[in-house]
Amino acid sequence: MATEILMPALSPTMEEGTLAKWLVKEGDEVKAGDILAEIETDKATMEFEAVDEGTIGKILIEEGTEGVKVNTAIAMLLDEGESADDLPEPSAAPKASSDDSEDAEKSAPAKAKSAAPAEDAPQPDRSPDWPEGTELRQQTVREALRDAMAEEMRNDSTVFVMGEEVAEYQGAYKITQGLLDEFGAKRVIDTPITEHGFAGIGVGASWGGLRPIVEFMTWNFAMQAIDQIINSAAKTLYMSGGQMGSPIVFRGPNGAAARVAAQHSQDYAAWYAQIPGLRVVMPYSASDAKGLLKTAIRDPNPVVFLENEILYGKSFDVPVMDDFTVPFGKARVWREGGDVTIVSFGIGMTYALEAAEKLAADGVEAEVIDLRTLRPIDYDTVLASVQKTNRCVTVEEGWPVGSIGNHISSVIMQRAFDYLDAPVVNVTGKDVPMPYAANLERHALTSVDEVIEAVNQVTYR
Amino acid sequence: MAARKTQAKPNVSADELKQYYRDMLLIRRFEEKAGQLYGMGLIGGFCHLYIGQEAVVVGLEAAAEEGDKRITTYRDHGHMLACGMDPKGVMAELTGREGGYSKGKGGSMHMFSRDKHFYGGHGIVGANVPLGAGLAFADKYLENGRVTFTYFGDGAANQGQVYETFNMAALWNLPVIFVIENNQYAMGTSQKRSTSTPEIHTRGEAFGIPGESVDGMDVLAVRDAGKKAVEHCRSGKGPYILEIKTYRYRGHSMSDPAKYRTREEVQKIREEKDAIEHVRDLLLQGKHATEDDLKAIDKEIKQIVNESADFAKESPEPALDELWTDIYADVAPQNA
Asked: DSSP secondary-structure letter at B234?
């Protein structure tokens, strides 16, 4: 049977083109791969090849014709033994196939799904992280992180840690201290200085049946590896239709340390919190560092675990339990109060808590919420608090544009607008690269005074 | 045609030759059909065809054992067919349908099959190289004796992360074969305009990784080189580099008019070096098959390809709920 040769689409966006030139004429025999015509698209002139063999029976569109729609019959190809006289009338240009996008839109939910849960009344989980009466001991964040890794490595032989100076040097910030002695060089691996490369090797290993912990000496250096974190780790489960999850933890110190200037002092919380497919954790206390890191190592998804160098040496109560974990997506209320809600996470909590103490001395009771995880975010705890206090201040060290505070403000505005007695104020780092000079650095970061000032602003004091 | 002098190789059976012919022909016909469906608007976005390079994957698959892994770039349809993935599932992914390997959510460049140990299908040039070394890292850690074929092109060979990976793969003795499919053009930039030293297989020397250059239009040469590389990796000697010199007949992607090379250059290689014609000649000259035998294979392939196209057209588009699935896993993947 004769075959219609159709006007091809030669680029992702092409809808029509010019049939610039025929390179065959009626009666010519063609085989697959022969150039039939030159077709001009909006971007280029392309050669158009035959797919089947046969004889050109009739040319339906003359050369030089502009605006030929994709899928219009442009010629008829005859099989062996057929004649051009037998040809039927060509069909009209078919409609674009399988294009039911209008129907799709109609049947889609009226409102795009937002990250916020659908219920209007927030129902926060206020259960304690450990049972009442549990024995507590003082531990630094550094020790808590190491214990979390060691416990998970004892439980699961596929867990290993790799990174710069994690083994023989015992960790640039001593987070992996002692791990090489206990687990050996097979599972505690010093890498060359090559973030992009070892992040990719880590992701590949996670597909191959292991549970890597990839330590970045700091998250600043992970910018070299961000393609592997986002394009390979975060997106592959989706792109594979659910076949290829990446159970991997990327961890290390994030944000400003002290006097290390612009290239070594950046907070990536908002960057990674934007990426679907990632879990993003930013602990403040030692118990959260431990409980969340253990959860991260067990999670079947890629986790970005943002620590802070200044917090490493800080001590907190940590429960003495066989297997202490903290779930993702559950904020912690550090301090209850009815006058204003202060939402923070990571090192921002140091400003928030100190400000709350000072405000209390002044008669203002702040409720202080530590988000702990930034993906998922526990919106309900924030909203329930704002419905009680009617005022909110967010605190973080990162830059102001597109900050976590901006996002929290937006969710509060959309879901608790009627409860607000003042606009939400975002306390953030300044919109500048981090300066080196001690006085300038102090000003570039946020401060307890700025948090107090913001609370005064939302309480009209 | 067959300007190339073909000689019967003693180390191949008639059945093997026929199998290579069949496997290469399947890729070519599948890709021609994909090109056709693209022209009809049924396949969208970027679509990179493998036509001309068939001997590379078919030769290397002949050197692989069950359980070995493979990972490649976005020119990936041939690799999937060669490792035994279902043409229907591949074609339906190209048309973005529910029956595709990624339920229509990955497309031409992002397909995977844990069953067949195929780890993608990656759209970022060079990014799959450390990922492939990571798969090999896991194999070595788990001591399972597997090797990983990590395919990339002459263009990707200029990415920095490739050399970061060479260093670690050699340092840690990883069982990974770096397969550089040198088709001579990184999109529109010829190798001589992009690459300071043309012998890419020597790029591992600085890291102590052996490498060799292979005629990628000769499936038997590819297979033999592959066997040698596999033996090297499996015996614990670390990585190996195969630079396989091949040629793509079509543009970089469907929207590339390929004006950077002459029609004559392409035609000359098609006529003198075509890998499928080469095996066809071996089969006929060696009296391993008759014209009729080959016609029967052609017919069988045509039917498989047509069925895959029918399936890809008939499979429904993914349900709208699929937009929100597979973002997070509830459980860890099964160990590969």
From this structure: H
Residue of A297, A290, A281 whose CA lies nearest to A318: A290
Could you report how far apart the first and last alpha carbons of chain A are, in Å? 86
Cα–Cα dist B222/B58, whole Å: 8
Do the chains contact at A33 and B249, CB–CB below 8 Å?
yes
Spatial contact of A17 and B41, defined as CB atoms under 8 Å apart: no
> Could you tell me if A309 and A211 lie in one domain?
yes
Which residues in chain A (87-146) have CB-CB distances under 8 A to chain B?
96-98, 100, 104, 107-108, 113
- Identify all chain B residues contacting A247, using CB atoms and an 8 Å cutoff: 329, 332-333
Residues 6+ apart with CB under 8 A from A226: none
Mutate to test the interface with B, among A74, A188, A207, A248 (most CBs of B within 10 A): A207
Both A142 and A234 in a single domain? yes
User: In this predicted model, what pLDDT tens digit does every residue of A331-378 receive, in sequence order?
Assistant: 999 999 999 999 999 999 999 999 999 999 999 999 999 999 999 999
**Nearest residue in chain B measured CA to CA from A15:** B41
A-chain CB neighbours of B133 within 8 Å are 200-201, 204
Listed residues A293, A319, A345: the one ending a domain:
A319
**What CATH number does the domain containing A68 carry?**
2.40.50.100
Summarised one tens digit per residue, pLDDT across range A353-365 is 999 999 999 999 9
Chain Cα centroid distance, residue B96: 21
A210, A232, A301 ranked by CB distance to B141: nearest: A210
Which structural domain, as residue segments, surrounds residue A169? 136-319
Contact (CB<8Å) A44/B257: yes
Closest-CA distance, A269 to chain B, in angstroms, reads 19
A43: phi then psi, degrees, rounded to nearest 5: -110, -30
- For chain A, the domain total comes to 3
Structural domains for chain B: 14-306 (3.40.50.970)
- Residue A203 contacts B where some CB pair is shorter than 8 Å: yes
ipTM field: 0.93
3-state secondary structure of B177: strand
Q: Is the pLDDT of residue B304 over 50?
A: yes
Does the active-site annotation cover A195? yes
Q: How many CB atoms lie within 10 A of CB A138?
A: 10
Residue A264 among the catalytic residues: yes
- Check whether residue A254 and residue A396 sit in a common domain: no
pLDDT at residue B223 tops 60: yes
Consecutive H or E run containing B279? helix B275-285
pLDDT at A236: 97
| pLDDT tens figures, B133-180 | 999 999 999 999 999 999 999 999 999 999 999 999 999 999 999 999
User: For B128-141, what is each residue's pLDDT tens digit?
Assistant: 999 999 999 999 99
- Helical (H) or strand (E) element with B296: helix B291-314
Measuring CA to CA, how many Å separate B104 from each of A275, A313, B92, B109? 21, 49, 7, 11
Pick from A153-157, A200-204, B37-41, B145-149: least confident: B37-41
Chain B residue numbers touching A301 (CB-CB < 8 A): 328-329
